[in-house]
Amino acid sequence: MEPRQSEDVNLFVPLAVQKLAHAYHLGDVQAIYAQQRPTVFHRVSGLFCIVIGLCILLVYFLTYTQFFIAWPLWQSLLVPLVGAGWLLFGIWVFATTLRPLLSVFVYPDGMIYALRKRTLIRWEQITKLWKEVRIDDDSNVFHTYRLQLVDRSQYILPPDLSENEQLGQLLEQITTPRLYPLALMAFHAGRPVTFDALTVEKQGIRVQKRLLPWKEVAHISIDDLHTVVFKKHDARPWASLQTATISNIGVLKDMIDYMRYMLARDMPATAYALYRAGVVLDFGALRVSRQGVLLENGVRLPWKDIASINAGESEVIIRRRGQLPEWLAVSNATLNDLPVLRDLLLTLARYQR
Q1: Where residue 1 falls among pLDDT bands split at 50, 70, 90?
Q2: Contact at 8 Å (CB) between 217 and 232?
Q3: In angstroms, rounded to a whole number, what is the distance separating the alpha carbons of residues 223 and 141?
Q4: Integer Cα distance of 88 and 94 in angstroms
């Protein structure tokens, strides 16, 4: 069953969901993912098993004194056990057809998770995302996603949700760019960044109580099933984990790429790392980001409009491109963390932003 993504997708949105989305300004629905309704075959199969089980039990109790009383006790008890087995199996099959069905309505600013009740989930509320991949004997692949919000409540996207792999990839694309800068800031502040089964620290990678320093990390292999850490000069895995036990795998991959980048260039972990992660760096009267420079007076200067920027002894000088070059000056007295700013500007000049 494909997720509904047509222009008239709003026709498939229940009125209560539309009201909730409108009340919280989520925008227009972009896609709907829903569990498939049970087939008639499942319901008939469940009822058939229930009838068989009841018939066996009924015959046993009605004819016990005529036929079964002469049987050995263990043989006699097998009959009601078989009947009870048919009955319980039928009840279980039929009950699965009565369970509430999950629907997920995706909007630009969040999604509505509708099961027994409707829950509004904004993208910024998601703090953790797990992905579990299972492959059966016929090589069929099943994806299950689990997400956790800031209040620690969790929500499951089961494998029988229509195109749930597509929805899971969407969640990863949305959450990773937002969570990665936060993880990187925590990393540079000296705080461990936990991915549940694995923790990234400034000193290295930690699995339970074991720590592998970054300079001793040879390779980290991550796929849908396993995450394996290798130590230099050792062919055996230093640690092997199930990827399903690791949260925010996209953020972890970005942090590993970042550490490879830093180690390869032997560069100190400076504000440049946060800059590359898309974080806006605030130095008081001047802010620096991947987009450019923002001055205290509201002037925005994209990098393409800046010919040069240098931190002098008393002020930061910015030369603006144009037929008539324009010079802007920001007093050092209005700036914070001036040594960090100088280091960042030198690094940007070295690597051409």
Answers
A1: very low
A2: yes
A3: 14
A4: 10
Residue 246, pLDDT above cutoff 80: yes
Task: Give 17 or 353, the one with higher predicted confidence.
Answer: 17
User: What distance in Å separates the CA atoms of residue 212 and residue 253, rounded to the nearest whole number?
Assistant: 17
Q: Beta-carbon neighbour count of residue 180 at 10 Å?
A: 21
Quote the CA–CA distance of 269 and 340 in Å, as a whole number. Answer: 11
Q: Lowest mean pLDDT of 31-40, 51-60, 220-229, 289-298, name the range.
A: 31-40
Q: How far apart are CA 321 and CA 314, in angstroms?
A: 23
Euclidean distance between the first and final Cα of the chain, in Å? 46
Residue 11: predicted pLDDT: 61
Residues pairing with 228 in the sheet: 221, 240
Amino acid at 328: L
**What local confidence, expressed as pLDDT, does residue 264 receive?**
61
213: left (phi over 0), alpha (psi -120 to 50) or beta: beta
Average pLDDT of the residues of the chain: 86
**What is the per-residue pLDDT for 9?**
60
Nearest to 34 by CA among 2, 9, 7, 10: 2
Nearest to 173 by CA among 240, 253, 58: 253
Its sign, for the CA torsion 18, 24, 28, 31, is: negative
Strand ranges for 108-161 from DSSP E: 110-114, 118-122, 126-135, 141-149, 154-157
Whether residue 262 contacts residue 269, with contact meaning beta carbons closer than 8 Å, is answered with yes
35-43: average pLDDT: 75
From 279, 281, 272, select the one nearest 351 (Cα to Cα).
272
What does the alpha-carbon distance between residue 192 and residue 198 come to, in Å, rounded to a whole number? 10
Q: How far apart are CA 25 and CA 250, in angstroms?
A: 28
